[in-house]
Amino acid sequence: MKKFIIPIMVVAIIIALYEQVTAQKNVYVMVVAIVVFMMGMMHLSAKIPSKNQDKEDENV
Questions:
Q1: Collapsing DSSP states into helix, strand and coil, what is residue 6?
Q2: pTM
Q3: Do 60 and 25 form a contact (C-beta atoms < 8 A)?
Q4: How far apart are alpha carbons 16 and 26 in whole angstroms?
Q5: Based on C-alpha coordinates, what's the Rg of the chain?
Q6: How would DSSP label each residue in the chain?
Q7: Which one of 16, 39, 40, 49 is CB 3.0 to 4.6 Å from 33, fit for a cystine?
Q8: What gap in Å lies between CA 28 and CA 50, rounded to an integer?
Q9: CA distances to 4, 19, 22, 60 from 38, in Å
Q10: Quick one: pLDDT at residue 30?
Q11: Would you write out the chain's pLDDT as a tens digit for each of its 60 residues?
């Protein structure tokens, strides 16, 4: 799954940066690219455990 999400995020950022440089900026393309990037970051960061997870497990 990670092999699928990371390239999509890279493409979304490249598209967003390209739209930023063009003379006629399309806001909708920028918004979609940012949303795709943020959704990818959510999926990737959901797999990273919390720092406090060990402390919470000890208290239980």
A1: helix
A2: 0.72
A3: no
A4: 10
A5: 17
A6: -HHHHHHHHHHHHHHHHHHHHSSS--HHHHHHHHHHHHHHHHHHHTTSPPTTHHHHHHH-
A7: 16
A8: 34
A9: 15, 17, 23, 33
A10: 92
A11: 778 888 999 999 999 999 889 888 889 999 999 999 999 999 988 877 777 766 655 655
